[in-house]
Amino acid sequence: MYSCLSLCILLIGIVSWVPYLAFNLQENFAALTMILNPIGFFLGALSESKFLALGNLLMVFSIVPVLVFVYLSKGYIRR
Question: What is the reported pTM?
């Protein structure tokens, strides 16, 4: 049960980046990764699935490289 919930939260975290990266929409769906994926990490640890726990933990910290990529691609940060 915990692994299914953790997998669903991981997929929600991945899908929440799609409007921001692919469709160039400045919506706050990406903030879901900061709220849901720590819960998914905890559920992945409870289910003893290292893959799900690590995947959710990577999604928590994915906000930094994705925001840097978006800011570089939009020209907000000059190289």
Answer: 0.79
Cα(18)–Cα(41) distance, integer angstroms? 21
Looking at the domain assignment, is residue 18 inside a domain? yes
Per residue of the chain (79 residues), give pLDDT as tens: 888 999 999 999 888 888 777 776 767 777 788 888 999 999 999 998 889 999 999 988 888 888 787 778 777 766 6
Where in the sequence is the domain holding 61, given as residue range(s)? 2-74
